[in-house]
Fold Aldehyde dehydrogenase (NADP(+)).
Amino acid sequence: MTVTGDQFIGGRSVSGAGKEFHAIEAATGNALEPAFHGGTGDDVEKAAAFAWQAFPNYRETTLEKRAGFLETIADQIIAIGDELIDRATRETGLSASHLERERTRTVGQLRLFAKEVRRGDFQELRFDPADPNRLPVPKPDLRLRNVALGPVAVFGASNFPLAFSVAGGDTASALAAGCPVIVKAHPAHPGTSELVGRAVQKAVELAGLPAGTFAMLQDSGFEVGQALVADPRIRAVGFTGSQRGGLALMKIASERKQPIPVYAEMSSINPVILFPNALRNRAEEIGKAFVSSLSLGAGQFCTNPGLVLAIDDSNLERFIASATSALSVTPEQTMLTGGICEAYKNGVAKLSGHVEVTKLSTGTANGSHQVSAALFETNGAAFLSHHALHEEVFGASSLIVRCRDENELRGVLEALEGQLTVSLHVDDGDLDAARVLVPTLEMLAGRILVNGFGTGVEVSPAMVHGGPYPATSDGRSTSVGTLAIYRFLRPVSYQDFPIDLLPPALRASLEV
Amino acid sequence: MTVTGDQFIGGRSVSGAGKEFHAIEAATGNALEPAFHGGTGDDVEKAAAFAWQAFPNYRETTLEKRAGFLETIADQIIAIGDELIDRATRETGLSASHLERERTRTVGQLRLFAKEVRRGDFQELRFDPADPNRLPVPKPDLRLRNVALGPVAVFGASNFPLAFSVAGGDTASALAAGCPVIVKAHPAHPGTSELVGRAVQKAVELAGLPAGTFAMLQDSGFEVGQALVADPRIRAVGFTGSQRGGLALMKIASERKQPIPVYAEMSSINPVILFPNALRNRAEEIGKAFVSSLSLGAGQFCTNPGLVLAIDDSNLERFIASATSALSVTPEQTMLTGGICEAYKNGVAKLSGHVEVTKLSTGTANGSHQVSAALFETNGAAFLSHHALHEEVFGASSLIVRCRDENELRGVLEALEGQLTVSLHVDDGDLDAARVLVPTLEMLAGRILVNGFGTGVEVSPAMVHGGPYPATSDGRSTSVGTLAIYRFLRPVSYQDFPIDLLPPALRASLEV
């Protein structure tokens, strides 16, 4: 398999006629071959028409057929082999071993959704029998099932070239729900996207599904994505990226004639709360583990620990000493793109120059595509009065907030915007203090962890990778884990249907 | 109990300091005593503060306590006795027997949600155990539950003074989910609202719940409602009413610093499709049943059959003859308010004057507060080219569309906006033709009925009273039936929590 610069529409490889662009090698800034061309309005129109045409058939595929399709996608991704890892490494600067793990997660995710489809619970079948003798009026027979929303637009994420891109979590959950998917590939890894896109297209063919079940469009700008979200045949959007990007899509979606849900996973600083006993017993250990989490993948995870809260005491100094020491030996890492690298450096510079902030460590010196992790500190009062300090710096930057006491720490938590995760580091003596905070944390974030860090998001039934706005656009859902399938479904009720007219899944218990 | 003109905030009766207004007797247009005063910004502020304060306690009440509270509300509503029906009859013009049935539905709804709370399934408890031996990294322990969103603003509906007002479906489902509720009473029935509000306040007291669990504000204008939706402590909105009203609230909610979900049930013309064999076998019977549904409660139901589609043939003439004959003996009915009556007359006049529309019947002559049902006809081509004909006329007005053939009928269905219900009238020979349409209908509406009409919405587990925009603001949910509880919940994941720190419901299966 070779990267050719193609898009995929209607089961065919299609050259874009839009603006030319190249993948950029993250580590060097050099352009990679071949050239890609952005899609056009006409490509969006065709892809949407194919998806709309495929929808009635695809959404009524048997559970077995749909599950098999998801498994075939996984097999086809594995079948790409080393070329996928090589290309992704060059395009993203992530290490081969990182990307191998991400590939494992990606195919595992597809297979998990296959199981979820076979289990069938997501259909939410409800049987609510008639009662002809009820007074004053007979009760009708009612049955309910979830149906797929319609074609879904999925935006590839820059930081997960496999697990949240062409065949990533949003695509897997939307396909599992019975929705055709049109992917807008992320321009930071167009070759990786093409390789995976071709694998999905192959799977569509092998499964004998309508060609419009899947499409993938390229674009280095915003036009294709915006046109996609505005298209009346698109019925939901999955997005992982910046707050600016997410808000722009939400605006387009809400101004449509028929507004549609946008599931945007946007920004989070993922507070870490260090409790006194945990700090006393394990300050050094926690400090090291914190730096490990902070610098994982150059800090380019949505669950990166960007904020550390603790009551100011001598054990916090031990944590800081341990963290700064670990940071000093953390090597520079390549960031995903020049733009992300630039934004990180700006964010770090802004913190460095902030009057209320002290720089603790910036590891080694910055290169032009490589950066080092950065650690800062401030106090609770300063944090509370400077909203700029609440903002995410995407990358391995974190801010320690020294709180005067429990009340101030609580005040800081209550002043925060919605988050994906909150981590608590506690030992036995901390449980009472932690318990008091849990209700606040439940309102703040989608996932609360004890003695761990938010990075390393498990793909499983009880995962919530979501949280109140602005962590996501819709805190009622998750983008990781099997619960994600519900984002792309809506309930339909069937009243007094003759058995022959019911969808097969709802015929089951009709026999008297 | 007597109507005093009060609001309820923080467990106390509070006089409004805003603009004075009176309830208007629907049948006569006369003002009723006593005077009401609208709430102020200060009242909104206080109610929101009380609700926010009550929230942590209320959302963690035991299932048994919360269920008992809902049942106590039902008991307290019954305990008001005849005064409730008398006042509601005067304020709404609905008949006493209609309102008695609506009261039965309202208390039944509260008791059904009590059962749903005891059952506890809405918590969505998920146990996802650790696997310390997993490679390359151990799997954490994950548990998930749904938590309540926060205080909910509920807007009383003009057309359901009991079942969708102060202690109606939105309030019942939000309270069941663990959310405190602040009701903005509908100014068309402030006295009815006060009586029910006092019953709920009494139930809060009897159940020993925090005073902020419930509040009710009055206002004849929009200020109180708008301030409520904008308040940062309000986390969701339940609304049943006009499209204009729903869209205004959606706009406020989306422009907040933290946008919140608005569940607005707005407008629907509820297409009825008459198939050829059903018409041949039962044209007269269907015609009579149609008029019964059309004129129920002066046609002021969201599920009122405002559109009839059939292939033009001689059996359709029989249906029309039967319907017009039934309409001619349908008595005039009082509408809910002068404004609604005026809007109905305007809508009917617009249809009467439309060049492509023929007036079939307007029953008896219109009075100044009483109106008669109206029936019109047009053809498929005209309907397709005049979007004004797709708009709801709130009240007992319906439009028959004569379609040339199955294709045109299908074209009409595909041109419609989202609906709450679609009804099919079929006999044996129609099933093949109906089956072909079902996928289109599933995309069009939240509920599909066979050989019935949408009015008479069952409150039960498999009901969907919802549907694609603009029937509602969010087609992924229902406002009637037990599934409505999910509108006010969001999932939270707990990772590696010590047993003592977990919410009680999630401790269950921890023991090894």
In short: Chain A is about 40% helix and 20% strand.
